[in-house]
Write a structure and sequence with these properties.
Layout (H helix, E strand, L loop, with lengths): L10 H7 L23 H4 L9 H8 L6 E2 L2 H7 L8 E4 L4 E7 L10 E7 L8 H13 L8 E7 L2 E7 L6 H6 L8 H19 L5 E2 L8 E3 L5 E3 L6 E2 L8 E2 L11 H6 L1 E2 L1 H17 L15 H5 L6 H7 L10 H14 L10 H8 L25 H34 L6 H20 L4 H10 L4
Parallel strand pairs: 1-5
Antiparallel strand pairs: 2-3, 3-4, 4-6, 5-6, 7-10, 8-9, 11-12
């Protein structure tokens, strides 16, 4: 018999009606697999949906994972019946609500805020992606992976319960309008945390390819510690002599590696490319794909990559929200790393463990002004610092002109007495030296760099 396909929205009306959901009959438990230490993740994905045996089979297979199996009624209590006041957002998976767990609900469970994510069966992802996330996060544990506290699997309902990440996603924090811009050191801390999460996956005993690394899947706690979330598209890495995993192309446009899009060959280097795009977003403050920009600038990686190894052009693409307050050396090294990660040749990209080593010192660089052009509000008199500098420059030139005029007057007097001119190359150099001396004095009194460079452009001294 075909199961009724209901969306998550059918849950909310039941809250007010108080309808009790009947649980399926419990089947006889299966014998435990002696090889549970590395149980077949792929085999888990072959479980039928929504067979009545699924919930029991899943909980039996995940014994020892410390995951809690919640009932739907418990989740209603946790989220206050999925109240709109607790609504956090909605993505391709489904809506997310904030909740709170205390020991009254489940003895022995630490009191804590949680994020409850419901699978929308009419959305972009489905049962298989939900199951993939449960299986992977049940086995994987790392400071830079979001912690899965438990799940709910009742009838057609599929729910995940995570630790609550108060600062939300990197995407919302980086691109949200009217928000305080992230400082340089915080951006590098986020990049480093995300890199450590990917490195852990790639270097695991049974390697994992994340496959959907992007800014919206990087969550931040109150201390801006980055944690990877949403493992619905994760895949086990190639085994034995295999160089890649062949799979249908899935991911997010703008982040997916070009060779994966072309061939469907998935490797750890596909994740490295995606990381390079996110690192580029942190450097530039631009989205990976932005249709509102001119055609040549819509794809961030294609537009910025040629400029990443050119220091003079790098300043043009740095995030203007930083207002020049970043480490110039750190920015160059970060840009060079992004350039490596975005290489069109996968074998030339660095391993994530090497990426971590490169990023570790970048957050220690102090946020210093690198002299970028920043708009300055005019003063009450209507003048700006630039106008003041131009005035000082004109005064300096006028003083030099006066000095030269006095010198030429003495030369004319000398010519009148003797009938010929004694002006030589040394006298022509005198005006340049006098001008430079005057400008040097102005520099000591606070003139900007424009005053120093302009005369050298006008007078080429060998």
């Amino acid at each position: 018999m075909t199961a009724m396909k209901l969306s998550w929205r059918s849950i909310i009306p039941r809250c007010s009606k108080g309808v009790e959901i009947e649980k399926p009959e419990e089947p006889q438990p299966k014998k435990e697999d002696s090889k549970r230490g590395s149980f077949g993740r792929l085999a888990m994905l072959d479980l039928s949906y929504p067979g009545s045996i699924l919930s029991e089979d899943l909980s039996t297979s995940l014994v020892g994972s410390n995951l809690n199996v919640f009932t739907l009624e418990e989740l209603k209590v946790i989220t206050q019946c999925f109240s709109s006041a607790n609504f956090l957002g909605e993505g391709g998976f489904g809506p997310v609500h904030k909740g709170f767990i205390d020991d009254k609900l489940r003895p022995g469970l630490d009191a804590q805020p949680v994020a409850v994510k419901l699978l929308d069966l009419e959305g972009c992802q489905g049962h298989r992606e939900w199951l993939t996330e449960v299986v992977f996060l049940a086995q994987l544990s790392h400071p830079h992976l979001v912690k899965l506290i438990g799940y709910c699997c009742e009838e057609e309902h599929r729910v995940l319960v995570y630790e609550y990440m108060p600062r939300g996603s990197l995407e919302s924090l980086l691109f949200r309008k009217y928000s305080v811009p992230l400082p340089w050191s915080t951006r590098m801390k986020i990049a480093l945390g995300a890199a450590k999460g990917l490195a852990y996956l790639h270097d695991a005993e049974k390697p994992v390819i994340y496959r959907d690394f992007k800014a919206s899947n990087v969550l931040l706690d109150s201390d801006y510690t980055a944690k990877l979330s949403d493992f619905g598209l994760a895949k086990d890495g190639p085994e034995g002599d295999k160089s890649h995993v062949s799979t249908r192309v899935m991911g997010t446009q703008g982040y997916a590696a070009p060779e994966y899009i072309m061939t469907g060959h998935l490797t750890a280097m596909s994740d490295v490319y995606s990381f390079g795009v996110v690192l580029l977003e942190l450097l530039t403050g631009r989205r990976s794909l932005d249709k509102s920009r001119p055609p040549r600038e819509q794809n961030l990686a294609e537009w910025a990559r040629p400029m990443l190894n050119e220091p003079r052009r790098l300043a043009r693409i740095m995030d203007p929200k930083l207002e020049g307050q970043y480490s110039e050396m750190g920015a160059r090294r970060g840009a060079a790393l992004a350039h490596q990660c975005l290489s069109h040749r996968p074998k030339q990209r660095p391993k994530m463990s090497d990426v971590v080593k490169i990023l570790e010192p970048l957050g220690d660089y102090e946020d210093t002004s690198v002299g970028t052009f920043v708009y300055t509000v005019p003063t009450q008199s209507g003048s700006t610092p630039k106008d003041d500098n131009d005035t000082k420059e004109r005064e300096a030139k006028a003083e030099v002109k006066k000095e030269n005029s006095h010198h030429h007057h003495r030369q004319r007097n000398h010519k009148d007495r003797h009938g010929h001119s004694h002006r030589s190359k040394s006298s022509s150099m005198f005006s340049v030296h006098s001008e430079n001396d005057t400008l040097k004095q102005n520099t000591e009194n606070g003139s900007n760099s424009h005053s120093q460079r302009k005369p050298r452009e006008e007078h080429n001294i060998d």
